[in-house]
Amino acid sequence: MQDKRMEEQLKQQVMRYMEDEKRPQRKNIKTNKGKMSKKQMQKLKRTKRIKKVGSVLLVILVLLVFLVGTKPGRSLLYKIASKYVSSHVQSPEDTEVSNRQPSDNVIREDHVKNYLIFGIEEFGGARNTDAIMIGSVNTKDNTVKLTSLLRDSYVEIPGYKPHKLNSAYSKGGINLLIETIEKNYKIHIDGYASVNFEAFEKLVDSLGGVTIELGEEEAAYLNRTNYISDKANRNVQAGINKLNGNQVMGYVRVRKVKTLGGANNDYGRVVRQQRALKAMFDSAKSPKNLVRIVPISKQALSNVTTDLSQKQIEMVMKAFFENNSKDLETLRIPVDGAFDSPKKYNGIGYPIILDWDTNRIEMYKFIFGYTDEEARIALDKVK
């Protein structure tokens, strides 16, 4: 309702200005031209130029206010931006989409869409998944949530022996990774996006860098190791830093040093990944980047592969920028107190053994907004 009022006010302002331009006073000026001095003529011309420039600026201002300040305007921006993104990301091979088997016994809600997001690290000819997350978009309240799945989680892999979650992709690509997540976590995946680490750096740079707070141990470790690949960037400090893409890439890969707050190993790595994504989330929502959302990196998009349609991308953008919460909400699975981490289990070194029922319930509560009882009832239906 408020958007419609604003739109109507803007239209009225333009109409009033146009009416002013049509006033007959210019005729009177023309009839008196012969009596005007050269100085007066020059002044008249300057006045006309100022009016023309002013009218153009007013129209531009009105358009900007409409596009950014009203829902219909922003919807138009999302449509344009989603078309741009859709045309520049990489599409999966046809077999990757057609061979995916729909999973039974999974939780889904029409108003919540769950997208698998994962990073691919290419090393020694192998392509392994590193960060594995589920991005959940709630179309009812326009919220976006992020659930991190620890890559060392011990899971059942269809057609193979149980192993760590990050091994599924190397065994059977994206289809097997999605099937594995749906089978173990009992949640429907609506689509996916994979990001090459090179794209991650470029995306951070295209946002103008991100602000992250570092602990003393983290800063010292990043400056003396090769996690930050470019030596010229090994100059971070304890406290608040404006980090570029190369520095953020090093930050999110660190495992052996405690985070600011005390988390270590894979848990600390997930905390860093979530903090980096929150910082990117905040940067992307800033006014300077909102108007640059379409050109925010053609190069970065070329390193992203997704099976999302243009309409799905538009929906994600709308939820992302209309987000009702100030911060990106995050969860880590497994949750504290609901897993074991033995040195060896069934021949696998250092796996994470989940208490599945507890973790599924906590994940359903977080993603779908269920109460504890609703989550338990939903789980009973799909077990």
TrEMBL record:
It is a single-pass type II membrane protein. Residues 128-285 form the Cell envelope-related transcriptional attenuator domain. Gene3D superfamilies: LCP protein. One of its GO terms (cellular component) is plasma membrane. Keywords: Cell membrane, Membrane, Transcription, Transcription regulation, Transmembrane, Transmembrane helix. It is found in: Cell membrane. Involved in SarA attenuation. Affects resistance to oxacillin and teicoplanin, as well as the synthesis of virulence factors. NCBIfam families: lytR_cpsA_psr. Belongs to the LytR/CpsA/Psr (LCP) family. This is Regulatory protein MsrR. It comes from Herbinix luporum.
